[in-house]
Amino acid sequence: MVVKVEVFTSPSCPYCPMAIELVEEVKKEMSEDLEVTKIDISIDQEKAREYGLMAVPAIALNGVVKFVGAPSKEELVEAIKEEK
């Protein structure tokens, strides 16, 4: 099963590049299983409102916010495996 990963970021966020890098790294390892979308909340505020996000970076898996802040690689991989 493909897991839909949405990464919510903001250009002014100092932690967002780290979250994007982490998701990209995990995608390389699990590429056939992940569909990654990066969402800049300064451009797409509607999606952030739908999810009730008040902070970035945030990572949603299959439409459910799982992390606010950048998780460790192990935490992200484990959460993805649970979604399959």
TrEMBL record:
The record's GO molecular-function terms, alphabetically, read: electron transfer activity; protein-disulfide reductase activity
The record's annotation in PROSITE patterns points to: GLUTAREDOXIN_1, GLUTAREDOXIN_2, THIOREDOXIN_2
- Which residue intervals define the domain Thioredoxin in the entry? 1-84
A Pfam family annotated for this UniProt entry: Thioredoxin_3
Q: Which residues form a coiled coil?
A: none
Q: Which UniProt keywords apply?
A: Electron transport, Transport
BP GO terms, sorted = cell redox homeostasis
| Family per similarity comment | Belongs to the glutaredoxin family.
Name listed for the protein in its UniProt record: Redox-active disulfide protein 1
Q: Which organism is it from?
A: Methanobacterium paludis (strain DSM 25820 / JCM 18151 / SWAN1)
Starting at the broadest rank, the lineage of the source organism is:
Archaea, Methanobacteriati, Methanobacteriota, Methanomada group, Methanobacteria
